[in-house]
Design brief:
By secondary structure, the protein is an alpha+beta fold. It is 29% helix and 22% strand.
Length: 511
């Protein structure tokens, strides 16, 4: 069969400047007039190189040169795991375990596997992802990870940092929760070249579920460990150069996560983003912050700047190599004081509304032992994350130098005093909800806050809510707040500072 690839490409490059690209029209321009279906397939194969979107009518058009808009998930939260993915997952379970996969011996195997998986995770043991573990993992984690990914992407789209033509590397992609969340977050006019690195049995579920995504998602699953992975080159020959690199819920499972994180940063495009996500539990979240601080301010040579040929004149008149870039923490943690970096334990996580219980979780849960109701249901959306950039961009670009405000690194000077300060809100309320369980009155709401200089934890404790301090409650995770006339106390039991927000305190949300 004649390879018409070059002719199709040449015609597409010309027509994209003129009108929508019709495979039938291109067919008529090529010697031998290949069938339009052949032309359409060749266009699909080259769509990411040519930045072409396939439309519902079968024609192709260039991707718009504008960023992905925010989806306003604060006002319109995600409520459920999409039915098409849930149905496909159940189809895969039926194929592997039979129609009644959740009953009898197969159901018992999946339940015992899930119990063992959770116990191994809590005990920080290594997990081998065989077929049963992959199935149990998909049943339990797909919905929450699907939603978490989309909430994190809001941070980037709020600043216009996610383009409509997107090249993504997903390291440790697992069964595909974050991948599906990414695909559904992107608008219809977006083009996604998606590369997944997943050596485990979860790759089979990932490949199946990706078949349910849109026509402009072009996935490749690399079934190998990240340590032996070599990323494909882009159209310009650059190895790597990904607009978004994801390490979602995998760093805690790697033998040398810091080395993998540094390598992943080098695969990130100079104007791209690296996302590291972890479960909200104490160990995983604190380990994520340790890694964040380990790579911050270090230099890497990102894809697209290699070769040692780029240089610019520095202030002293000599030449300075610009092949390296400094790693910046984009968010959600902040750095509000020049030269200061946090050294507290760093346990910080976001919490979003629960999802509806999907049928596949309900089915596995209903036939379990009567005393374990809810054991196999997981609709919580709680996650820790860190976003890194190589161009110096931060989600909150704000400095407190010269403001006269209290610095958390020096909070011991202000104990029992009232001070003014500015900090990011890095938790939802951490207080117990005993009142709702009939165990007495609810304690005061408590929120972790940070200005990026602290060596120990700081918490804003709301003892009297007023119209003037209500922004502390209403502000989203990661929001920047100013506190006026807050009382500083030392909490000896927790080894932390309590910043008391009462009826004398004013809290404002800063842009």
């Amino acid at each position: 069969m004649t390879d018409h690839r070059a002719a199709v490409r040449a015609n597409a490059q010309y027509l994209r400047q003129v009108r929508p690209i019709d495979p039938e029209e291109i067919s008529s321009y090529i010697d031998g007039e290949p069938h339009p279906a052949v032309v359409r397939q060749l266009l699909r194969e080259q769509a990411t190189d040519l930045d072409l979107l396939e439309r519902a009518d079968g024609t192709f058009v260039p991707v718009a040169d504008e960023p992905v808009p925010p989806q306003s998930l604060d006002r319109n939260p995600i409520t459920a795991f999409p039915a098409r993915y849930a149905t496909r997952l159940e189809d895969e379970l039926v194929e592997r375990y039979g129609v009644n996969w959740h009953e009898g011996p197969t159901g018992d195997v999946l339940r015992s596997t899930l119990r063992r998986l959770k116990a191994q995770y809590l005990e920080r043991q290594d997990v081998t992802y065989d077929e049963d573990v992959a199935a149990a993992y998909a049943i339990y984690h797909l919905p929450g990870y699907y939603a978490a990914m989309q909430y994190v992407l809001e941070d980037l789209t709020a600043r216009g940092l996610l383009g409509r033509s997107l090249r993504v590397l997903d390291i440790g992609a697992g069964v595909g929760g974050p991948a599906l969340g990414l695909c559904d977050y992107l608008p219809d006019g977006a083009l996604l070249e998606y590369h997944a690195v997943e050596p485990g049995d979860g790759a089979a579920y990932l490949e199946a579920l990706l078949e349910e995504t849109g026509r402009n998602v072009h996935p490749t699953v690399h079934r190998r460990p990240v340590e032996s992975f070599e990323p494909p080159s882009g159209e310009d020959g650059t190895v790597g150069g990904f607009d978004l690199v994801c390490l979602c819920n995998v760093l805690s499972e790697l033998e040398d996560p810091e080395t993998v994180l540094r390598q992943a940063l080098e695969w990130t495009a100079p104007d791209g983003t690296l996302l590291a996500m972890a479960p909200a539990d104490k160990n995983a979240s604190i380990e994520l912050r340790r890694l964040e601080r380990a790579v911050e301010d270090t230099t890497v040579t990102p894809a697209g700047l290699t070769g040692g040929t780029e240089s610019e004149e520095n202030d002293s008149g000599g030449e300075e190599n610009t092949d390296t870039r400094t790693v910046t923490v984009y968010g959600p943690t902040v750095r509000l004081w020049q030269g200061e970096r946090p050294t507290d334990r760093g346990w910080s996580f976001d919490v979003r509304p629960d999802l509806d219980v999907p049928a596949f979780q309900a089915n596995l849960d209903e036939v379990g032992d009567g005393d374990t109701a809810g054991e196999f249901v997981n609709v919580d959306v709680q996650f820790s994350y860190a976003l890194f950039r190589l161009d110096g961009t931060r989600h909150i670009d704000h400095t407190l130098e010269g403001t006269g405000q209290a610095k958390m690194a020096e909070m011991d000077r202000h104990v029992t005093d009232r001070v003014d300060l500015t900090a990011a809100k890095l938790s939802h309320s951490l207080s117990e909800t005993g009142a709702r369980r009939g165990h007495g009155p609810a304690p005061n709401p408590v929120f972790k806050i940070s200005d990026g200089s602290e060596a120990v934890d700081h918490y804003a404790v709301l003892t009297a809510e007023t119209d003037l301090n209500r922004p502390l409650v209403d502000a989203a995770y990661g929001a920047l707040l100013s506190f006026e006339n807050v009382l500083v106390l030392w909490n000896d039991d927790e080894g932390a500072y309590n910043l008391v927000v009462d009826d004398e305190t004013i809290v404002d949300r800063l842009a």
